[in-house]
């Protein structure tokens, strides 16, 4: 029978997602990922026998799905509500970490992959972005946005918010996210046939 304080697989994945959001993938070892999750290295290899790439891929999927869950829930009230929840999530992460953490999906996306290889973590990052865009585009269409315009606006939302997160961390200020939020809300309301 497992001890109650034994590290869970999910806790290791969540810890890895957090550390990747702070340092990126290339700047972390599996030992550091295990330490950050407060898990023994042996447990980490037990759960992730393929090593760092397997853990990183699952961490990116975990982070991507966490955001998608929030979007699914909040977009039911409309695209503006979904945008506000998306922004509130990132505001919380950046502020609570004192500008040290951002988005692990973005962190993996901007690092140089090994030559002639597309790492599974990068594929998982692309899938996460696509899911977020899909959810936003669906909500936009459902609330009156032009069907052809919705995917582009959804991509603009994701790209703008992700870029603003990076700018907030660099400037140690939430001003970029606030500015992006204001502009995106105007664009969304303008794209809808009826009020948000």
Account of the protein in words:
By secondary structure, the protein is an all-alpha fold. 71% of the residues lie in helices and 0% in strands. It contains nine helices and no strands. It has helices at residues 9-23, 30-36, 41-47, 52-75, 79-96, 104-109, 120-142, 150-171, 175-191. Helix 1 (9-23) packs across helix 2, helix 7 crosses helix 8 (150-171) and helix 8 runs antiparallel to helix 9. The longest helix is centred in the N-terminal third of the chain and has 24 residues, at 52-75. The radius of gyration is 18 Å and the shape is elongated. The termini are far apart.
Write a concise keyword list for the protein shown above.
9 helices, 196 residues, mainly alpha
Structural class by secondary-structure content: mainly alpha
**DSSP summary: helix tally:** 9
Radius of gyration: 18 Å
What is the multimeric organization of the chains shown?
A: single chain
The percentage of residues in β strands lies in under 5%
Q: What is the overall silhouette?
A: elongated
Distance between the termini: 52 Å
Number of strands: 0
Helix content: over 70%
| Mean pLDDT figure | 91
Sheet of most strands: none
Order of helices and strands: HHHHHHHHH
Low-pLDDT residue spans = none
Please give a quick description of this structure.
This protein is 71% helix and 0% strand. The chain has nine helices and no strands.
Element layout with pairings:
Layout: H1 9-23, H2 30-36, H3 41-47, H4 52-75, H5 79-96, H6 104-109, H7 120-142, H8 150-171, H9 175-191
Helix pairs in contact: 1-2, 1-4, 4-5, 4-7, 5-8, 5-9, 7-8, 8-9
